Amino acid sequence: SLLWMTLTGGKSGLILEQSLRLIRHIDLYDLFVLKARPKVFLGLDDQGVQHMARTMIFEKYGLKNVGLGHSIFGGPQTIPSISFLHFHQYLTISPAIPPLFAPFWDKDKIYLTGLPRGDLVHESLTDETRRILFRKTVGGKKIILALPCGQNRWHLMDRVRGFYENLNRLAMENKDWRIVLKPRMDNIVANWHQDLALSILDPAIQEGRIFVMDETFDTQELIAFCDLVVGAMASSAVGEALSIGRKTFCYNFNGLDHYNSYRMFDERLAANGPAEMSERIDYFDNDPTSTDLIEKAGLAFTPVSSQNSVERIRAALINACAT
User: Could you give the CA distance from residue 255 to residue 174 in angstroms, rounded to a whole number?
Assistant: First the structure.
């Protein structure tokens, strides 16, 4: 915490805090294995030191600790803690991720699964009943899906405002377009700059040109049903869109403009601010070469079929049991 860092001397205090947390979790997992000894433990805690404690204790008892990787297309510059992993096996969603962490990760422990939620996107592609319902709800000839992220102190407010002003302009200038805004519902809704966004978008919302989508349709359905997907920074939603050949790019709300694997592949897959956002939308709307870019990017980021990622996770766990 900020108070802890202040009292103990900044970064040194944070290191001490994490060290004490590691010791605490070593004790907790030592107690855990007295009650339960799973052959394999699948954890989604690669960002915390607790997974290291679990591996250390599991090794004493011949058990396996497998990590399910977060979406980290931004590399160690955005989530440096994931540079330091201690799993028996680590499941990652894209071959574009390990090179970003190459100096830190043990490549022999990496297992490629594909995008778990990609299964849901592919399922939605063939659900005509839901697609028809969505089109009736929204209307329009072209639909842009915008996926804003939650508030973060690193976000640049001129970029946040520019994002919503661009959406409003697009909706008001193109009568046959619709904008669907889908905030992350695992955050408190107010965390997505709701007051600012609605103050800008309200006229277009009242005219039925912009829709703030609730839980009627989930994100993976919307990716399948919309024509263009605008993700937030290095979001896995962009990868999910690429997996089905959907036109997409990410919008950087913060200033980490050069540490984005989508932009590193091709700058047209990312927008650093509202001016580039307008350029990207125009490119994907009017330039026929954009289809080739999406195809090439799909092969780079999602060469493993996203239709079977859950099966690959299961196969990885079975393999961990056998080794």
Answer: 30
H/E element, 110: strand 110-112
Closest C-alpha to 110, from 95, 123, 129:
95
SS (H, E, C) 9-46: CCHHHHHHHHHHHHHHHHHHHHHHHHHCCCCEEEECCC
Q: What is the pTM of this model?
A: 0.86
Determine contact, residues 145/229, Cβ cutoff 8 Å.
yes
2 backbone dihedrals φ, ψ, rounded to 5° = -65, -40
What is the separation of C-alpha 11 from the centre of its chain, rounded to a whole number of angstroms? 28
Taking the CA atoms of 71, 290, 149 and 186 in sequence, report the sign of the dihedral they define: negative
Q: Could you tell me which residues come within 8 angstroms of residue 256 by beta carbon, excluding any fewer than 6 positions away? A: 74, 77, 78, 154, 233
Order across the sheet with 89-92: list the strands.
Answer: 40-43, 64-68, 89-92, 110-112
Whole-number Å distance between alpha carbons of 235 and 220: 13
Q: Position of tokens 């290291």?
A: 52
Per-residue pLDDT of the chain (323 residues), as tens digits, is 444 444 445 556 667 777 888 899 999 999 999 999 999 999 999 988 999 999 999 999 999 999 998 888 888 877 888 888 999 999 998 888 898 888 889 888 999 988 888 889 999 999 999 999 999 999 989 999 999 987 777 788 999 999 999 999 999 999 999 999 998 765 444 467 888 999 999 999 999 999 999 889 999 999 999 999 999 988 889 999 999 999 999 999 988 787 788 998 999 999 999 999 999 999 999 999 999 999 999 999 887 765 688 888 888 899 888 87
Q: How far is residue 47 from each of residues 24, 50, 83, 321, measured CA to CA in Å?
A: 16, 9, 9, 24
What letter would DSSP give residue 184? -
